[in-house]
Amino acid sequence: MFTYLTKKTLEMLITFVGITVISFAIIHLAPGKPTDVLTDLNPKITPEARAKLEKYYGLDKPVTTQYALWIKRVVMLDFGESFSSDHRPVWTKIKERLPITLYINIASLLIILVIAIPVGISSAVRRHSLYDKVTTVGVFIGFAMPGFWLALLLMMFFGVHLHILPVAGLKSAGFADFTFSQKVIDILRHLILPIFVSAFGGVAGLSRYMRGSMLEVIRQDYMTTARSKGLTSNRIIYVHGLRNALLPIVTILGLSIPGLIGGSVIFEQVFSIPGMGQLFYMSVMSRDYPLVMGILTIGAVLTLAGNLLADLGYAAVDPRTRR
Amino acid sequence: MTDMKTYAIISRLKANKMTVTGGIIVLCLFLAAALAPLIAPYDPEAVNRHSVLSAPSRAHLLGTDDLGRDVLSRMLYGAGISLSVGFVSVGIATAVGIAIGAAAGYYGRAVDAAVMRFVDIMLSIPTFFLILAVIAFLDSSIWNIMAVIGLTSWMGVSRLVRAEFLSLKNREYVLAAKASGASDLRIILLHMLPNSLAPVIISAVLGIAAAVLVESALSFLGIGVQPPTPSWGNILSAGKDNLEIAWWLSVFPGLAILITVMGYNLLGEGLRDIFDPRLWDERS
After folding, report:
1. Best mutation site among B125, B134, B251, B282 for testing chain A: the one with the most A CBs within 10 Å?
2. What dihedral do alpha carbons B14, B19, B24, B26 form, nearest 10°?
3. Which residues from chain A sit within 8 angstroms of residue B122, using beta carbons?
4. Which of A278, B16, B97, B158 could bridge across to A268 with cysteines, CB 3.0–4.6 Å?
5. What is the DSSP string of A158-211?
6. Inter-chain CB proximity B209 and A144 less than 8 Å
7. Does B209 sit within 8 Å of A140, measured CB to CB?
8. Membrane-spanning residues where (chain B) (predicted)?
9. How far apart are CA B166 and CA A82, in angstroms?
10. Distance (Å, whole) CA B41 – CA B32
11. pLDDT in tens, B83-108
C-alpha cells in the first residue's frame, strides 16, 4: 500500500510539472514578447498593466528562471491580477466561480453513473434483444449529439414553447425575496437542463463501455464456474461479474474528467451560468491573459484530482492494486 | 458449429450495413461540399435586407438567417468547411500520433517511458480549455483551428501505434530486416507501419467525428470559423440569438452536424468490426 501511494504521488507530481510546462509554453506562443502582442490586440492595456505583466512573468530573465518564478507563484495560488477593469486577483475571481461548476459536474457525473451502469449491464445480459438494439441506437445518437445543439433544442422546447423551465442563469427575478425552500427549488429548476445536457453524452459513452466490459466478463471461466455451481443468474451477474466489469469503467471515468470540465465552457455559456467555464470564455474573448492562464492551470489541477480519485476508486474495487 | 458460423456471417453483414450507411453519409457530405457552387440556390454570403429571418418557403427551402442569407446555401458551403477541418486536423493528429507512437514502440525503454508520460500529461489537460487558450493567444483563423485540434488529439493514435509496434518488433520479418542492415526509419515505415494501419485508420475515422464536433462547438461559441465564412456552428450561433422567432436556424445545422458525426462513427465502428479478426468467428 505504501509503495503504491508513493508511486502514485510521484506520477502526479511529474504530471503536474508537465502540465504547468505546457501551460507556461502557451504564454510564449504569441510571436515576440507576450506583452508586445497584448498591446497590439488589446489597445486598452495601459503601460502600467504592461509593466506589471513584464514584472509578473519576469520577461527580462532567461526562460528557465521565468518558469521557476511563475511556478513559485502558482503554487501559492498567485496568478496575478485580471486585466479587466475591476483589477481583482485572478484567484479571487476563480474562487467565486468554481463551486457552481463543480456542483454541476459532480451532479452530472452521478447521473451518468446511475443511468449508464444499469443500462450497460442489462443490454449486455440481454444481448441482441430488442432492448439491446434500442439502447445501441440511442448510444449512437448520444455519441453524435453536439451538446450545445441539444441545449438549444431543450431551451426551445421547454423554455420558449412550453414555458415550464427557465432557460438562462441560476436565479429568477425577485430571488432575494424568496423563502429558503423557494430559493432551493428555483435554483434546481434552473439547473435541470444544464445538468441534463452535460450528462447526456456521458451516459451514452459510459453505458457502451459498461456493456462491452460486461460482455468481456461474461465470457470468463470464473463466470462459467459460478454458473455450474448452480448460483442464480442475478448473483452471478451482480456479485461475480459486476465487480470485475467495473474496473475498466473506473479508468474511463478518470479519463473522461477533462472532457467534462472542458464541456462546462459550452453549457455554461449556452445557459448563462456564472461558473468557471463562462469565466474562461469571457477571459478568452477579452484576452485577459492572467485569467486564461489561471483557469487553465486550475482546470488541469482539477483533472489531476479527478485522476487521483479514479486511482483510489480502482484500488477500492480491485484489492490486487493495493499490494 | 453451424450456429456459430451463421452468427459470424450475420454479424459481418451487420457490420457491413453500418459501414455502408456511414459510407453513404460521408459520400453525401463530399458531394454536397464539391457541388455546393453548382447546386446552392444563392450566394452563401449574399446579404438580403428584404428577407431577414424568413421561415422555410419555396424560395428559401431552409429559411434565411438574421442577415437574410439563405440557410441551405450556407449549409452546403459549410459542409466543405466541416470536411476540411475534419480531415486536416485528423491528418495532423494521425501524423504526430504515428511518429510519437512508433518511436515509443520501436525504441522502447527510456524513450517509451518518457513518451508515454508525455501522453498521460496531454490526456490530463482539459483539451477544450487548451484549445480556447491557444486561440486566445493566437487568432482564430481556420488554419490555427485545424492545427490546434490536431495537436491536441494525437494521443489515442500514438497509444495504438505503440501497442502495435511493441507486438511487431520481435517478429521474424522485422528481425530479418534489421539483420540485413535496414535503417530504423526504413523498418518503421516500410515493414512495421503497413502492418499496423488498420486500427490507425479506424481511429482516424472516429477522430474526424470528434474534430467536427469540436469545430462546430468553437464556431458556435464565436471563436471558430468567423463569419461571413459559413460553418454549421456559426449558423447555430445565430440560431441561439433568435431562438424564440427562428427555429429553422437552430434545427437544420444541428441536424447536419448530428448526421455527419453519426456517419463517421458508423463508418469507423463498422470498419472496426470488419477488421477485428477476433470478432469473425467468436462473436455471437
Report:
1. B125
2. 150
3. 22
4. A278
5. IIIIS--S--SSSS-TTGGGS-HHHHHHHHHHHHHHHHHHHHHHHHHHHHHHHH
6. yes
7. no
8. 20-40, 76-106, 118-136, 142-161, 196-225, 245-267
9. 48
10. 13
11. 999 999 999 999 999 999 999 999 98
Phi-psi region of A146 (alpha: psi -120 to 50; beta: other; left: phi over 0): beta
CB-based contact B121 A22, cutoff 8 Å: yes
Chain B residues closer than 8 Å to A303 by CB: 124-126
Cβ contact B125–A22 (<8 Å): yes
Q: How far apart are CA A150 and CA A198, in angstroms?
A: 10
Q: Enumerate residues 6+ apart whose C-beta is below 8 A from B198.
A: B275
Residue pair A292/A300 in contact (Cβ under 8 Å)? The answer is no
Tell me which chain A residues have a C-beta less than 8 angstroms from the C-beta of B10. none
- The least confident of A169-173, A232-236, B219-223 is A232-236
ipTM value greater than 0.90: no
Q: How far is A19 from chain B (nearest CA, A)?
A: 6
Of B122, B129, B220, the CB nearest to A262: B129
Grid cell 530573465 is found at A61
- Among chain B residues, the shortest Cα distance to A280 is held by B129
Nearest-angstrom CA–CA distance, A96 and A99: 7
Q: Report how far apart, in Å, the C-alpha atoms of A130 and of each of A206, A274, B273 are.
A: 20, 43, 21
C-alpha cell at B102: 512508433
Domains identified in chain B and CATH numbers:
76-283 (1.10.3720.10)
Q: Count of CB contacts below 8 A, A vs B?
A: 145
Domains of chain A: 2-30+79-322 (1.10.3720.10)
pLDDT digits (tens, 9 = 90+) for B250-259: 999 999 999 9
Answer yes or no: is pLDDT of B269 > 90. Answer: no
Place of cell 469545430: B215
* pLDDT band for position B277 (cuts 50, 70, 90): low
The residue that leads in pLDDT, A80 or A187, is A187
Length of chain B: 284
Contacts of B236 in chain A (CB under 8 A): 148-149, 152
Question: Rounded to a whole number, what is the distance in Å from the CA of A231 to chain B's nearest CA?
Answer: 24
Flag if A289 and B136 touch (Cβ within 8 Å).
yes
> B167: Cβ–Cβ under 8 A, 6 or more apart, which residues?
none
- Cα B49 to chain centroid, rounded: 36
- pLDDT (tens digit per residue) in A212-243: 888 888 888 887 787 777 777 777 777 778 88
The span from the CA of A50 to the CA of A44, in Å, is 11
Contact A146 B132 (CB under 8 A): no
